[in-house]
Amino acid sequence: MTTPPGYPADFVPLRTDRLTLRPLRAEDATALHRLVNDWEVAKTLARVPFPYKRSLADEWILSTWAQIAAGEAWHLAIVGEEPGPDGPAETLIGCVALTLDADRRQAELGYWVGRRYWGHGVATEAAGRLCRWALAQLEITGIHASALRDNARSAAVLRRLGFRPAGEAMQTFLSRGAPMPVNLFHGGREELTGDAGPAAGAAAAPLAGPPLMLVAAVALVDADGRVLLARRPEGKPLAGLWEFPGGKVKPGETPEAALIRELKEELDIDVSASCLAPFTFASHAYEKFHLMMPLYLCRKWGGTVRAVEGQALAWVRPKQFGGYAMPPADRPLVAMLQDFL
Ligand SMILES: Nc1nc2c([nH]c(=O)n2[C@@H]2O[C@H](COP(=O)(O)OP(=O)(O)OP(=O)(O)O)[C@@H](O)[C@H]2O)c(=O)[nH]1
């Protein structure tokens, strides 16, 4: 396929066991029109008129490219494979979308699935994948969604993903030509990614409490007094949060040796133990483990910092830590660094 001008070719498709989520292509318009121009689908969608004209599909696909390029909204095709005469062929199944709110701290989730693909968990699989991607890649703290009051199937999808009810509202539905009652839903990072937050009532936990995890971390400080933060990549617990470089101390390792190893593996820099100055530590009850994390300060290293694992990195002035969402264990450390540096 030659890439037409404007197509967001640099968006790396998201994959699940059965599905691929990728920007829509001009040639998806015919299938898209067929699937959406179906009253059973259109009647659940607020922004789709019915009947749905074929030319609208072409125009809409082009508009989704501009939105991806602007970093405002990601309307993605849900595609799967079906057996065809010449072997498995790519098939459009539906669409899933995430649109940033004006303040860019929250986003709205939307999805639809062609009627013949209902009942196979497609919406849950696709929307869950897009939510996890968004929480790891965008600076958002939560996602909201709505479902028509009588659309129990969509409400069940949202509940399965971890969304919680957040009230009711009236919303205009182009397909119905009228405002309709909808149930609102909201999910924060913990609910949607299944990450354990701080354990409520950890102090009262029985003696055989969660295991202790020893993690060594470092504040690398550059000549301008900026500190390096690394973003936890998708797929890891607490994905999307910014943290101090480091990692788990392996059995038989000292915290210093663990840091020297992690800094080489993650950032390709050489640090000697004598340049790691103990600074403070975090002791934090997560639900599944208790984190004990010594934090070192380091101002001298060999080589140039680079993101070996493709993780996002940021050199941040201590005053600006507030703009970076960090794991709950790090909050006291941030305050101490701000005082010290
Ligand atoms: N490196 C690091 N880990 C932190 C910080 N704050 C914090 O709560 N943690 C937690 O400490 C644990 C570190 O585990 P990790 O997954 O980074 O360790 P690792 O690099 O050895 O990972 P791996 O097990 O995937 O190889 C995670 O649960 C992480 O959420 C921080 O500032 N830096």
UniProtKB/TrEMBL annotation:
Cofactor(s), names only, from the UniProt record: Mg(2+)
Q: Which residues form the N-acetyltransferase domain?
A: 19-185
Domain Nudix hydrolase, first and last residues per copy:
211-338
Q: Which organism is it from?
A: Paeniroseomonas aquatica
Q: Quickly give the catalysed reaction.
A: 8-oxo-dGTP + H2O = 8-oxo-dGMP + diphosphate + H(+); 8-oxo-GTP + H2O = 8-oxo-GMP + diphosphate + H(+)
Entry EC number(s): 3.6.1.55
> What GO molecular function terms would the record report?
acyltransferase activity
Which PANTHER family does this UniProt record tie to the protein? 8-OXO-DGTP DIPHOSPHATASE, NUDIX HYDROLASE FAMILY PROTEIN
- Entry-linked PROSITE patterns: GNAT, NUDIX, NUDIX_BOX
Q: Give the protein's recorded name.
A: 8-oxo-dGTP diphosphatase
**What family is reported?**
Belongs to the Nudix hydrolase family.
What keywords does the record list, in alphabetical order?
Acyltransferase, DNA damage, DNA repair, DNA replication, Hydrolase, Magnesium, Metal-binding, Mutator protein, Transferase
Keyword DNA-binding attached:
no
